[in-house]
Design a protein that fits this description.
Layout lengths: L2 H8 L22 H10 L7 E5 L5 H9 L3 E6 L2 H13 L6 E5 L12 E4 L5 H17 L4 E6 L3 H9 L4 E2 L3 E2 L12 E7 L3
Parallel strand pairs: 1-2, 1-4, 2-3, 4-5
Antiparallel strand pairs: 5-8, 6-8, 7-8
Helix pairs in contact: 2-3, 5-6
């Protein structure tokens, strides 16, 4: 299905790129549904997981994964306008009751029992570093298995993930064939933290 067809099926509106003009945050650009289908099929996110989508924008990742996998999801974004649009989507989406939306800065958002974390390069490497430290600390304080997924990961994101001793890399989700097949960054890098 195309992105427009998926939006219609989920009864949400997530198409289009929007720039919030924050130098520390990327413009809103939704993850392609074809990529999200691969993530859902990978088994890295399961029904019993609680997914946190950083830089959720209008909520596409959270709504799709709640629909496709049946997991609970939290979408966080610093933009009040984008969160308001995501809340409109939540009211319309049949899976919206499994999605919570929060307007907050990622590096300040308190973590709870989330077990899966999704990133599409939503913010600067400095903020990513802070968020990653918070995730790792949360998993030490409240031991649980956690999976981190980064679509189209930057070199800096990958370097920081590789440096984290607690994380082990999983097989990436290759998405090159969904596009022109030549861009090595068209993947979802996946990492696991196994705590007792």
């Amino acid at each position: 299905m195309t992105d427009r067809e998926w939006d219609r099926r989920l009864r949400i509106k997530t198409i289009g790129r929007e720039d919030e003009s924050d130098p520390n945050c990327a413009p809103y650009e939704p993850t392609p549904y074809a990529v999200l289908e691969r993530v859902a099929e990978s088994g890295y996110i399961r029904r019993r997981d609680r997914l946190l989508d950083y830089g959720c924008g209008k909520g596409r990742v959270a709504f799709f994964m709640a629909h496709a996998v049946g997991c609970a999801a939290v979408g966080i974004d610093h933009s009040r306008r984008l969160i308001d649009l995501a809340r409109e989507n939540r009211r319309a989406c049949p899976a919206g009751d499994r999605v919570k939306l929060v307007c907050a800065r990622a590096e300040q958002h308190p973590l709870g029992d989330e077990t899966a974390f999704f990133f599409f390069n939503p913010f600067s490497e400095k903020i990513f570093d802070s968020v990653l430290r918070r995730i790792l600390a949360s998993c030490r304080e409240n031991p649980r298995r956690a999976t981190l997924l980064c679509y189209y990961p930057s070199e800096a994101y990958l370097q920081r993930l590789d440096e984290a001793e607690e994380l082990r890399p999983l097989d990436p989700i290759d998405c090159r064939d969904l596009f022109d097949g030549k861009n090595p960054w068209e993947q979802v890098a996946c990492y696991r933290l196994d705590n007792p």
